[in-house]
TrEMBL record:
CDD domains: GATase1_DJ-1. It comes from the Bacteria. This is DJ-1 family glyoxalase III. NCBIfam families: not_thiJ. SUPFAM superfamilies: Class I glutamine amidotransferase-like. Signal peptide: none annotated. InterPro entries: Class_I_gatase-like (IPR029062), DJ-1 (IPR006287), DJ-1/PfpI (IPR002818), Prot/Nucl_acid_deglycase (IPR050325). Residues 1-168 form the DJ-1/PfpI domain. It comes from Aeromonas eucrenophila. It holds the Pfam family DJ-1_PfpI.
Length: 186
């Protein structure tokens, strides 16, 4: 199985590349899928970097993913929020008790908007934290809610930690340490 990473015009490039790169270092197959309304595979990320995806979300040949990951960034998170197939896949992932992960704006803009947080303990970019119920909000950089199979994080500066937590959830502590060591992570 593989991990699906959803992106759209305006997704945060540091987060996107950190996720894909870290997962690939852990020998996890990654499918980077565009949620462009016009069906394009190339997107301009939030800071103007051009990213080329593996496919458009409409071209997916499987719905069977170990995890589905949503980077933040605006208006990328809003475009993903407004992509019906992306939301269907995230809802299906939750029903199957499989991992979902989102960071920066995405936990609020995508997951909370579609009632996909449940009662999970979550974090997000500090600029969006006031929109989360106080009982659910954590101010930790990365939060893993095992019961809800949900990993959330705060933003570009925590993206590698976030990605390593995904590796840890999918492949275990030793795999995460094996990836983190050569990356000179603290």
């Amino acid at each position: 199985m593989s991990v699906l990473v959803l992106v759209a015009p305006g997704s945060e490039e540091i987060e996107t590349v950190a996720i894909v790169d870290t997962l690939v270092r852990a020998s996890i197959e990654v499918v980077l899928a565009s949620c462009c309304p016009a069906g394009q595979r190339q997107i301009r990320a939030s800071r103007g970097v051009q990213l080329v995806t593996d496919c458009h979300i409409d071209e997916l040949t499987s719905r069977d993913f170990e995890a589905i990951v949503v980077p933040g960034g605006l208006p990328g998170s809003e475009a993903i929020r407004d992509t019906p197939l992306a939301i269907d896949l995230l809802k299906e992932q939750a029903l199957l008790c499989r991992w979902r992960a989102a960071l920066c704006a995405a936990p609020v803009v995508v997951l909370q908007h579609h009632h996909l947080l449940g009662d999970a303990r979550v974090t997000c970019h500090p600029g969006f934290q006031a929109q989360l119920p106080p009982a659910q909000l954590s101010t930790e950089r990365v939060v893993r809610d095992e019961a809800n199979r949900l990993i959330t994080s705060q933003g570009p500066g925590s993206a590698i930690e976030f990605a390593l937590e995904i590796v840890r959830a999918l492949r275990g502590d030793q795999a995460a340490l094996a990836v983190a060591g050569p990356m000179v992570m603290p």
